[in-house]
């Protein structure tokens, strides 16, 4: 019976969220005097196929756009469940990409698959370091992570800038960007053009890595001692302290793990999509991660779903910007409004329950 | 004499670069003293900057632009107040989401309205050989007003009570959430001013995401300044100074000195090999953010923070 209830609730959410998002999108278009019909059509074609688009191609776009959102969203889940309001996904992601890029020269000395592996591992380490820095500042100096992570984001951004105008600049030294990585380092594309009707779909191995991260995070949070300590610290740090857990250690651990996921997102994007580094490497995935995680109820499974929704939205937005010149920034508005609605409703329900209890 | 001029210009530039931080901090001091954390400061600044620029563009009046910026700040503050005081949801969550919302709205409108040309407007007057923006000296009375209200008025006493122990304040008949809401509106006003300074006060063009993290630096300023007007002014000036080192470094020929140093150490060839023979000016741009971290490391452990900071209050 309980299972049935939960299933019903999940189905309700599964249908309510997309409907709500589409309604918000439509409302936003109307608000900004964008003809909603053609715009929504362009969104649908870009995300799910139809029109000039092969279905597999569009779905691949959706998955590719969902990948960085999923990894950074999971990172937010880990940090926020520990009560660390990290906004540092962007910086951790950039540091991951920067570190991976700066190891690309190894390809002259080592076999390519090994170099790719080293790049991915190094990006994870770099992200963990950048996230851990914020955690260390919090537990050692009591610096609020909301502020420190933002500062670390900007530090990472300008480090990337210095790198792509310095040591990592392309060999012709003209633009502020790195050389393209050699093809043999990049992730393999998964869909052959035969399936997608001749269009080159961007679906790459990194998407699978991101999907694999979901059960890993779930197991960590709900099936390990550390995960329990992490959630307990987040919901009531005094209780965690009384239960004998070290709050500082747990917070630091959460930030390390959270940073690692974002660092991974950096190398996945670098090796799967961008294949070069510049200052515009990330269009703000680290910030979009927060609505993604909040819409997913700060749970790994929910975050997977909401990353897919927002991935579809982004894929659609890219298409609409190309075809109907609808600014892709609309996605930001829809994300923020959706979170305001969900958080607002949730808090309102809590309040109603409190009142009923009195 | 040259050095005197140089020092003067560095100081002036630091004050100008600190101005938006001073405005935003003047608002945020009272907000935080009343027990709220306004993480949406960044979004309010950006919203103010865009509203000011857009209004000035269509009306050709900087005064109208300034008023629009204040209005934008107030509207956003009302939204924040609705969600954090009335409902009440978590202040940090709502603040973060508010930033994203404003980023989306300004970005969308900017892209829709200004496809071919940039948003360039009239600019507020400049004094002293066109080097001092009008809004820079105007921040001083704002900061003094904050100090006066905070320490010399009944309102200040009441709002500090709301920040330290809202339950006692409520028991004493103070309407905690009303005071917090009013302080949020003041914070929104000041954040709007800071935004207007960026887009029409010290420049004449709007750029996407032009607040560039200054709202968050302002939050850091309030923490580093120990929630007092004097401390925050000092902290903001330090950040302003870090912000101008880039230009001043170029002015005194730091690039040539850097190369001379490299040559002296026989490192010029190695530096050229790694494309480091020029000063990486991006690292200068990173200075204010690094300075923020170091200043916070030194100041965050003390207990000067309002005791109820970020804690919602519910009347029984």
Structural commentary:
The complex is a heterodimer of chains A (358) and B (316). Chain A is mainly α. Chain A has a single domain, classed as Orthogonal Bundle (ABC transporter involved in vitamin B12 uptake, BtuC), CATH 1.10.3470. In chain A, 73% of the residues lie in helices and 0% in strands. Chain A has helices at 2-31, 36-48, 55-81, 89-102, 112-141, 145-164, 205-223, 225-235, 237-242, 247-274, 285-295, 300-324, 330-357. In chain A, helix 2 (36-48) packs across helix 3 (55-81) and helix 4 runs antiparallel to helix 5 (112-141). Chain A is globular and about 65 Å long. The two termini of chain A are 29 Å apart. The mean pLDDT of chain A is 88. Chain B is mostly helical. Chain B has helices at 2-33, 41-59, 62-86, 91-113, 135-152, 154-164, 166-171, 176-201, 214-224, 229-251, 254-264, 268-273, 281-285, 287-299; strands spanning 126-127, 132-133. Chain B has a two-stranded antiparallel sheet with strand order 1-2. The N and C termini of chain B lie far apart (67 Å). The chains are: A mainly alpha (358), B mainly alpha (316). Chains A and B meet through helix 6, helix 11 and helix 13 of A and helix 4, helix 9, helix 13 and helix 14 of B.
């Amino acid at each position: 019976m309980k299972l049935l209830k939960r299933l019903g609730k999940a189905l309700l959410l599964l249908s309510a969220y997309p409907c709500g998002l589409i309604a918000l999108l439509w409302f936003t278009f109307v608000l900004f005097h964008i003809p909603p019909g053609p715009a929504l059509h362009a969104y649908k074609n870009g995300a799910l196929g139809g029109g000039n688009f092969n279905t597999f191609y569009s779905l691949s776009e959706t998955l590719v756009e969902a990948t960085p959102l999923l990894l950074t969203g999971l990172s937010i889940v880990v940090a926020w469940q520990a009560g660390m309001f990290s906004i540092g996904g962007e910086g951790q992601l950039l540091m991951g990409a920067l570190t991976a890029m700066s190891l690309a020269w190894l390809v002259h000395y080592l076999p390519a698959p090994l170099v790719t592996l080293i790049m991915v591992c190094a990006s994870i380490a770099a992200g963990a370091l950048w996230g851990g820095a914020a955690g260390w500042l919090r537990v050692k100096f009591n610096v609020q992570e909301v502020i420190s992570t933002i500062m670390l984001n900007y530090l990472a951004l300008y480090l990337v800038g210095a790198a792509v105008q310095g040591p990592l600049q392309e060999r012709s030294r003209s633009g502020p960007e790195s050389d393209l990585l050699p093809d043999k380092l990049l992730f393999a594309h998964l869909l052959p053009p035969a399936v997608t009707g001749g269009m080159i779909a961007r679906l790459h191995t990194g998407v699978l890595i991101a999907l694999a991260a979901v059960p890993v995070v779930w197991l960590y949070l709900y099936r390990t001692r550390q995960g329990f300590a992490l959630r307990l610290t987040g919901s009531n740090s005094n209780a965690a302290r009384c239960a004998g857990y070290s709050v500082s250690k747990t917070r630091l651990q959460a930030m390390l793990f959270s940073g690692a996921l974002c660092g991974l997102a950096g190398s996945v994007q670098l090796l799967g999509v961008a294949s070069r580094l510049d200052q515009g490497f990330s269009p703000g995935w680290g910030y979009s991660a927060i609505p993604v995680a909040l819409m997913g109820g700060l749970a790994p499974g929910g975050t997977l779903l909401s990353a897919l929704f927002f991935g579809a939205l982004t894929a659609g937005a890219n298409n609409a910007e190309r075809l109907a010149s609808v600014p892709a920034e609309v996605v930001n508005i829809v994300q923020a409004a959706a979170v305001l609605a969900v958080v607002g409703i949730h808090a309102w329900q809590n309040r109603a329950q409190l009142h009923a209890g009195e | 004499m040259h050095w005197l001029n140089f020092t003067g210009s560095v100081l002036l530039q630091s004050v100008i670069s600190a101005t938006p931080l001073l405005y935003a901090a003047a608002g945020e001091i009272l907000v935080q003293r009343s027990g709220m954390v306004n993480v949406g400061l960044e979004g309010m600044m950006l919203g103010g900057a865009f509203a000011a620029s857009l209004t000035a563009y269509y009306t050709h009046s900087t005064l109208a632009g300034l008023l629009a910026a204040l209005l934008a700040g107030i509207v956003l503050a009302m939204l924040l107040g609705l969600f954090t005081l009335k409902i009440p949801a978590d202040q940090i969550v709502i603040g973060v989401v508010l930033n994203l919302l404003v980023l989306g709205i300004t970005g969308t409108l900017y892209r829709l309205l200004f496809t071919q040309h940039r948003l360039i407007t009239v600019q507020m007057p400049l004094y002293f050989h066109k080097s001092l923006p009008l809004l820079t000296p105007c921040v001083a009375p704002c900061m003094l007003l904050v100090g006066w209200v905070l320490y010399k008025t009944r309102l200040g006493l009441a709002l500090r009570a709301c920040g330290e122990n809202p339950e006692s304040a409520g028991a004493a008949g103070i309407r905690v959430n009303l005071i917090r809401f009013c302080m949020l509106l003041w914070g929104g006003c000041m954040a709007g001013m800071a935004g207007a300074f960026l887009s029409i006060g010290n420049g004449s063009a709007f750029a996407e995401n032009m607040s560039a993290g200054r709202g968050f630096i302002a939050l850091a300023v309030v923490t580093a300044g120990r929630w007092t007007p004097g401390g925050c002014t000092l902290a903001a000036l330090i950040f302003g100074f870090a912000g101008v080192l880039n230009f001043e470094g170029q002015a005194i020929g730091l690039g040539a000195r850097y190369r001379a140093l490299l040559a002296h150490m026989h490192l010029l060839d190695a530096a050229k090999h790694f494309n480091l023979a020029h000063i990486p000016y991006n690292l200068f741009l990173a200075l204010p953010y690094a300075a923020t971290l170091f200043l916070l490391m030194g100041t965050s452990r003390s207990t000067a923070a309002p005791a109820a900071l970020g804690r919602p209050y519910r009347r029984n």
